[in-house]
Amino acid sequence: MLKHGKEQTRPSLDKVIAVLKEESVTKSLHFDLAFDNVIQCIVVSHPSLFTVPDDLKVPLLINSCEVDQMFPAEAQAKADEIFGDGKFAPGYKREYFSGCTHGFSVRGDMTDPLVKAGKE
Predict the structure, then answer these.
(1) pLDDT for residue 115
(2) Cα(17)–Cα(11) distance, integer angstroms
(3) Cα–chain-centroid distance for residue 40?
(4) What pTM was computed for the model?
């Protein structure tokens, strides 16, 4: 974490939060960084090495897809088993995008209607 610890990442995060507040945004989103309890929900798209902290107390949304070597069907089912059916009190939802592959939300082929729909 030397390159991605709190000291390196928090200044940028604070700048983003300041701009969001200026724009009257009252909720913050989490993208793989969580320091000092500023996070109100977590959204993870095409997770790969995502681990859930023991003290997670905010709603969790996982965007998953059909072909994902880093978050395969077995891992998706396990996430549902752990968090689904009301087992995770803050809230849990996993979106599934058929026809998409790992990375679709970042580098997906926008000429493919399924990928485009997943990204949007």
Answers:
(1) 87
(2) 10
(3) 12
(4) 0.64
